[in-house]
Specification:
The complex is a heterodimer of chains A (298) and B (234).
Chain A: H1 19-23, H2 28-49, H3 51-69, H4 81-93, H5 96-128, H6 130-144, H7 152-159, H8 163-187, H9 191-199, H10 204-233, H11 235-239, H12 247-256, H13 260-288
Chain B: E1 4-16, E2 19-30, E3 35-39, H1 46-53, E4 61-67, E5 72-75, H2 87-91, H3 99-108, H4 124-136, E6 142-146, H5 154-171, E7 174-179, H6 182-188, E8 191-196, E9 199-205, H7 219-233
Parallel strand pairs in B: 3-7, 3-8, 5-6, 6-7
Antiparallel strand pairs in B: 1-2, 1-4, 8-9
Classes of the chains: A mainly alpha (298), B alpha/beta (234).
The structure holds adenosine-5'-triphosphate and magnesium ion.
């Protein structure tokens, strides 16, 4: 549902509109009022837009609180919402949480960038050199069906316990859906559009740049979005071994210490950052692309 | 003679369920200046002929040559616009052409004010007109047009037909236009060739340019062509 500013219900406590708001735009009072009203309206709109999420969150936390209040589970296994909240506040205040979030985001972005580069190269190869791609394709198919986590022991043997094996796990995880989507997008351009290039005597390069690439863009973006989620979810696996930072490390470490409250803070942080990254990506795409946007981007 | 197609003994068949279906069987044709209309019933191979002339399809046998400077404009049977480009960008597609010039071309086909519309925001007939403007954008010496007006309503179609005649007269470009409408062929054609049975079944010069422009068809020629088509189908 779209709610226009005018249709938004007047927030309780907001001053009633006054005639001089419009009539005397130079007065400071009159200038501040509309700004305040705009801010309040934006907040109300955001709340209305997120109402399903708010309802679900309240219900889940309420149920959780109830289970704790009735002592159905020991606080050791399931800490109360209040306990988790105070842990979260403490971890935020000390900067600990931000540090782990930044470490994880950095790793995922680096892995994502590498995966995107390789997946694009594979897609272009599939399009321009199908014969060479035919040699590569069985290996890619094999890789697609091996969970990257299964490679961890080998990766540690080969690369040690530094950043490299963590990065490799993220790259492999992000690469799979992205390469499939990019390759599909680049190779699925119909003959109808390619013929237009032929009628204009396009070179191979021009056909690629002016027809095949823009045609593939929606598929490329879908692949990027899906694999961003994949890469983010691979975090815990990647940071499980010999890491000293990152949300994955935070969770595993808290688990070793039997600190369920800190585990929950880590899990919620992963979820929230993941959702935020996805919404941000969708927003940027929606704002820049005028074509090929379907409902999944809303 | 300036730009145009020269075709000798053209053969083309398509494989359909392992069987070769002949479409063009020894077609000979040399295009002359002006507007040449290829007339024929649905499925007789008009699009196939045009695609071979445009180099999008290879002939099985025969020689196909296109005289001229290579500046060819093509109107496909479907609009085939780039869905990610605006109308103006589609008109200028692949050209180093300034925006105002494509706006001028859009105005010519009756689409002033739609420069920024994306193809999916245009009606079917409007898309066909954008495609027509695109074919004229590089100042072609030869235009290959595959039923360019078939999707338009009567009034718009007549406007676009007149536009084509005007542009042809002022620029001297040559046109190879495919249609299944006898009326359209009689109105536009300096020369009308009937395609049937995989080759040219009849070849008529039309006296259109001799007199004033009129939508009243030349009855004698109409009867002649109708007779050719009927003879072929009885
Ligand atoms: N790619 C193809 N594969 C197989 N058969 C084809 C192919 N293209 C065309 N044909 C066949 O060739 C014949 C001629 O097709 P074509 O498109 O040239 O007809 P047309 O004269 O343009 O018809 P219309 O007026 O309906 O557009 C048809 O019988 C069609 O089935
Ligand atoms: Mg056709």
């Amino acid at each position: 549902m779209t709610q226009t500013a005018d249709a938004a219900p007047a927030p309780v406590g907001a001053p009633p509109p006054e005639a001089h708001d419009v009539a005397a735009p130079t007065s400071g009072r009159a200038l501040r009022r509309p700004v305040a009203r705009t801010v309040v309206r934006a907040l109300v709109r955001a709340l209305v837009g997120a109402r399903y999420g708010v309802v679900v969150t309240v219900a889940v936390v309420g149920l959780w609180w109830l289970v704790c209040a009735l002592r159905l589970r020991s606080a050791y296994v399931l800490p109360s919402p209040g306990r988790v909240w105070s842990s979260a506040v403490a971890m935020t205040a000390s900067g600990e949480l931000a540090e782990h979030v930044l470490a994880s985001v950095g790793r995922v972005l680096a892995g994502f960038a590498i995966a995107f580069t390789v997946a694009s190269a594979v897609g272009v190869l599939a399009l321009l050199r199908p014969r060479m791609y035919a040699y590569l394709s069985p290996a890619l198919n094999f890789l697609r069906n091996v969970p990257p986590l299964a490679l961890i022991p080998l990766l540690i043997l080969w690369f040690g316990i530094g950043e490299t094996p963590k990065l490799v796990v993220i790259v492999l995880t992000a690469f799979v859906p992205m390469s499939m989507s990019i390759t599909k997008g680049l190779r699925s351009c119909g003959q109808e559009l390619l013929d237009v290039g032929t009628s204009l005597h396009f070179s191979r390069g021009r056909t690629f740049a002016l027809i095949e690439l823009p045609h593939a863009l929606p598929d490329v973006l879908v692949g990027m979005r899906i694999s961003l989620g994949y890469a983010w979810r691979a975090l815990v696996g990647a940071e499980m071994f010999a890491a000293a930072s990152g949300l994955g490390y935070l969770i595993v470490d808290a688990g070793h210490m039997s600190r369920a409250d800190r585990v929950i803070v880590g899990v919620v942080a992963i979820g929230l950052v993941g959702v935020a990254a996805d919404r941000l990506f969708a927003l940027v795409v929606r704002r820049t692309l005028r074509w090929g946007i379907d409902d999944s981007w809303r | 003679m300036t730009a145009g197609a020269e075709i000798a003994n053209l053969h083309k068949s398509y494989g359909l369920r392992g069987r070769a279906v002949p479409v063009l069987t020894g077609l000979d044709f040399v295009q002359r200046d002006g507007i040449t209309v290829v007339l024929g019933p649905s499925g007789c191979g008009k699009t196939t002929l045009l695609r071979i002339v445009a180099g999008m399809e290879a002939p099985d046998d025969g020689v196909v040559r296109v005289r001229g400077d290579g500046r060819t404009g093509m109107v496909f049977q479907e609009p085939r616009l780039m869905p990610w480009l605006s109308a103006a960008q589609n008109v200028a597609f692949g050209q180093r052409r300034r925006r105002c010039e494509s706006a001028g071309l859009l105005a010519l086909v009756g689409l002033a004010g739609f420069e920024d519309a994306l193809p999916h925001q245009l009606s079917g007939g409007m898309r066909h007109r954008v495609a027509l403007a695109r074919a004229l954008a590089n100042g072609p010496s030869l235009v290959l047009a595959d039923e360019p007006f078939a999707a338009l309503d009567q009034d718009t179609r007549e406007d676009m037909q007149d536009l084509l005649l005007d542009v042809q007269r002022t620029t001297g470009m040559n046109v190879l236009l495919v249609t299944h409408s006898l009326d359209e062929a009689l109105y536009l054609g300096d020369r009308i060739v009937v395609l049937d049975g995989g080759r040219i079944a009849a070849d008529h010069s039309s006296p259109r340019n001799a007199g004033p422009r009129t939508r009243e068809p030349d009855r004698r020629l109409a009867e002649l062509i109708r007779a050719t088509l009927q003879r072929k189908h009885s």
